[in-house]
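Hi C.,

You asked whether I'd gotten around to modeling the 292-residue construct. I have! Everything is below, sequence then structure, no commentary in between.
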Amino acid sequence: MNGRGLFLFPLAPRWRNFFGLWGVHPIAISVGGVKVTDENNMKTAITRLGDLQVGDIPYVVGTISSLESLNAFGAAQVNVCDIVEVRADEIGSQAAWLEGCKEIESLGMPVIFTIRLHSEGGKWDKQDKLRMPIFEDALKHLSAVDVEFESKLMPAVCKLAKSLQKSTVISFHDFDKTPSLGKLKDIAKKSAEYGSLVKISTMAKTSQDILTLQKLLECEFGVPLCVIGMGAAATKTRITFPSMGSCLTYGYLDTPSAPGQLSARALNEQLRTLLPDYNQQFIIEKQILEYA
């Protein structure tokens, strides 16, 4: 089924247990922004990144921030993550990142293309509108792009992605604090109206901050939700939140791109130990890639 199709999948037993305890009924499916609801059958939000279904079990995203690492990506990295995020704002010129990204996609790994604004921790300090041609090129060749919730380009990028049957990660970052639960819910709800997947990452300095993020994971927005706590006090959330419903967790493949970020290898090893569903799926995926 293509990227515009609708997918309804039962919750994995582990996730069903978590949601059952919270009294939440995850129900919606989002592919290219299309959503359907079915409370009676206890479905969870599913979207696609390339050929990968995201939403039923968590996945490890390995982040690449240098041209050297991008060009050197190979079998070793394939075995430590499920998805690759390429930080083009860190890497530089378009010609440099495009061929490397296409090579990763040819290995069967979905690529999330990111060109992060300086205001949200990235190195893109030019006018926001100048990113649009770059997003257009990325969406022609890659599985997904990440665009900030607060970017004026967000609606246009999402519209283009839908037309090309590609996916969008709508991201929100706060490097100073964890906003109130009400504000985070509002951001997630509005993001879900446009994107395939919502990512919220905030600086979590206290146990109350972590609890706020955990409560956000208890909410249903109709698309898969990734929640990450940044900072030393919240490093553990990159491992624990995937078992509570966060659809993705991000780790570096070369150098950390966020405060408190662990390596993709460490995340992969931890999740394979803690989550049997993830371990089983990871083994299957790598066998498929090996014999593709």
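If it helps when you're writing up: The domain at 56-291 is CATH 3.20.20.70 (TIM Barrel).

Thanks,
B.
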